From TrEMBL:
GO terms for cellular component: cytoplasm. Keywords: Acyltransferase, Amino-acid biosynthesis, Cysteine biosynthesis, Cytoplasm, Repeat, Transferase. This is Serine acetyltransferase. Signal peptide: none annotated. InterPro entries: Hexapep (IPR001451), LbH_SAT (IPR045304), Ser_AcTrfase_N_sf (IPR042122), Ser_O-AcTrfase (IPR005881), Serine_acetyltransferase (IPR053376), Trimer_LpxA-like_sf (IPR011004). PANTHER family: SERINE ACETYLTRANSFERASE. It catalyses: L-serine + acetyl-CoA = O-acetyl-L-serine + CoA.
């Protein structure tokens, strides 16, 4: 018993930077008090003394503001930080080394007795403040539940769940936007590069008949500029774009996302440390819906730049294009999404 108490105090001292001493933890942490009372109530419950277990649990609720049903199973080194408003149901199971913050509910969505109604948290799960985990499913080991998330389906091991209803971010999803941004940058660089070959060759190529036809139609030599002939020689999508459009194409929105995180990067020679993510999500975790919006804005900006280049090529060939739309301001939309 005392070994387990020492484990509980040590884990709180490790995870809470506000903890200054073991005496402070033993006397002033309601989460620890709630765990100790629950062990007594759970022991009574397992021996069939149901009323006594419920009464001890009720006393613990009055003292700590944390309601844990005596039938719930709680592992070792579980840390309930702050704890006020935490509710843990009868069939809930909490694995070792879990961290739970204030206002969390491990509840059920069914009213049938004798079945698994409440969730199971495997080892190392972090549940952010105000999160609601509802149902008899499993949250995988070392998963993170964001603050105020409403989780109603299983969460795989190592994943992050955020939002209402919760959307699951798998570990491999964190690297996907970066790879997509690099691919977009390389594609944009190839699109924005000017057409190869000397200008004289392009002027004597397929654009020469067009220039001759223009001279025959107007009776004046040199009415078609050499630049127009050079642009007509290649594909309009391979022209050199104006600075603003090239900026859209060459700077994917993923780079704009990383701009705000550059200040938090470790200095040269410093050892990077992983954030504890006390409320389930860290600074580098974006909502999946936000990621989708960034990719849509990025794709739309690139398509808009291509359409603008096509319109410019058609106007150089003498076709008037009515286009009253302003160019898409991708950077402004990105800031609005953030």
């Amino acid at each position: 018993m005392f070994d387990q108490l020492r484990e509980d105090i040590a884990c709180i001292h490790e995870r809470d930077p506000a903890a200054r001493s073991r005496i402070e933890i033993l006397t002033c942490y309601p989460g620890l008090h709630a765990i100790l009372v629950h062990r007594l109530a759970h022991g009574l419950w397992r021996r069939g003394w149901y009323w006594a277990g419920r009464f001890v649990s009720h006393l613990g609720r009055l003292l700590t503001g944390i309601e844990i049903h005596p039938g719930a199973r709680i592992g070792r080194r579980v840390f309930i930080d702050h704890g006020f408003g935490v509710v843990i149901g009868e069939t809930a199971e909490i694995g070792d080394d879990c961290t739970i913050y204030q206002g969390v509910t491990l509840g059920g969505t069914r009213l049938y007795k004798g079945e698994k109604r409440h969730p199971t948290l495997e080892e190392g799960v972090v549940v952010g403040a105000g999160a609601q985990i509802l149902g008899g499913f499993t949250v995988g080991a070392h998963a993170r539940i964001g603050s105020n998330a409403v989780v109603i389906k299983p969460v795989p091991a190592g994943a992050t769940a955020v939002g209402n209803p919760a959307r699951v971010i798998l570990p491999e999803d964190h690297a996907a936007p970066t790879a997509a941004g690099e691919a977009a940058a390389s594609s944009a660089a190839s699109v924005s590069s000017p057409a190869s070959g000397p200008a004289s060759g392009s002027a004597s190529g397929p654009a020469a008949p067009a220039a001759a036809g223009s001279q025959a139609g107007t009776g004046a030599a040199g009415s078609a500029p050499a630049s127009a002939a050079g642009r007509a020689a290649g594909s309009p999508c391979q022209e050199e774009t104006p600075p603003s459009q090239a900026e859209w194409a060459a700077r994917p929105l993923q780079e704009l996302l990383q701009r705000g995180r550059a200040d938090s990067a470790p200095a040269d020679g410093a050892v990077p440390q992983e954030d504890f993510a006390p409320y389930g999500v860290g600074r580098t975790d974006d909502d999946p819906l936000v990621k989708v919006l960034h990719e849509l804005i990025n794709h739309t900006a690139q398509q808009d730049a291509r359409i603008q280049r096509l319109c410019s090529a058609l106007e150089d060939l003498g076709q008037r294009i009515e286009n009253g739309q302003h160019p898409l301001d991708a950077e402004r939309l990105n800031r609005m999404v953030e």
